[in-house]
Amino acid sequence: MKNLSQAKARLDRIQAKIGKREVTIRALVFMLNREFRGLRVKFESRPDPELRGSGLVSLSGLFSRWDSDNVRFNIIIVRDPLLRKLKPKKHLFMETYLVLAHELRHAYQLRRRKYRRTRREVTPFHHKNKDIKEEVSYLIDYDELDSYAYEAALEMHLRKLTLRDLHKVGTCRIMYGQRVKQHAFKHWKRFIRKLTKNLQTLSESGMGSGIHRR
Ligand SMILES: [Zn+2]
């Protein structure tokens, strides 16, 4: 998939088709896959025991460097195992869009490097708590930080938020605003620098005026 606005148009189409109806998650996944056919995106749903009884769904994305069965982008609807049906709200489509944007950014990073397998700019990070070490190492990874800064800027642009509203953006509030800011401050600054730059580019391009607001 090349174009983010293409993805947006497809998601809008599904959202309009469903309207205020309740649909099974199965049907939703089916619609998503049909709409994105030919764009190397595959949607699936997966139960998560940790969400049991919460009634919640969340989204997770995966980008593969190499095509497998002509799929590059996997988007997984992680759900409460007891949940069969839902009324997909605007928020869910927005999140799907942002996860897609994140994964598309990974594809762009690869293109930018001309598909060379270079060593990623890995910054060693140590912490005695293994969970913190893993999470922060992941978040400060060169490509991940770049993708998250892009995703966050896009969300802020769509929601018309400014840098003063960072706490309203999920990625910033918990992942970068807490974990990274606390444990790897210079990477927090790097994140903010990239975020600001992306926001600037987005507002200069005029993207979102009319197209993304509804
Ligand atoms: Zn990523």
In words, what does this structure look like?
It contains 7 helices and 5 strands. With 214 residues, the protein is of the alpha+beta class. The protein has 2 domains: 85 residues, no CATH class; 76 residues. It has a 3-stranded mixed beta sheet with strand order 2-4-3. A hairpin with a 2-residue loop joins strand 3 and strand 4. Helix 1 packs antiparallel against helix 3. The longest helix is centred in the middle third of the chain and has 23 residues. It is globular, with a radius of gyration of 18 Å. The C terminus is likely disordered. The chain binds zinc ion. Zinc ion binds next to helix 3 and helix 5.
Describe the secondary-structure layout.
Layout lengths: L3 H15 L4 E2 H11 L5 E7 L9 E12 L2 E9 L5 E2 L3 H23 L17 H11 L1 H17 L11 H14 L1 H21 L9
Helix pairs in contact: 1-3, 3-5, 4-6, 5-7, 6-7
The protein binds zinc ion.
Zinc ion (ZN) binds next to helix 3 and helix 5.
Tally of structural domains: 2
Give the terminus-to-terminus CA distance: 24 Å
Question: What is the topology, as strand order, of the major beta sheet?
Answer: 2-4-3
Helix content: 40-55%
Sheet with the most strands? 3 strands, mixed
The beta-strand count equals: 5
The average pLDDT value, as a whole number, equals 89
Indicate the low-confidence ranges by residue numbers: 209-214
**Could you say which overall geometry the principal axes of the C-alpha atoms support?**
globular
Strand content: 5-15%
* H/E series: HEHEEEEHHHHH
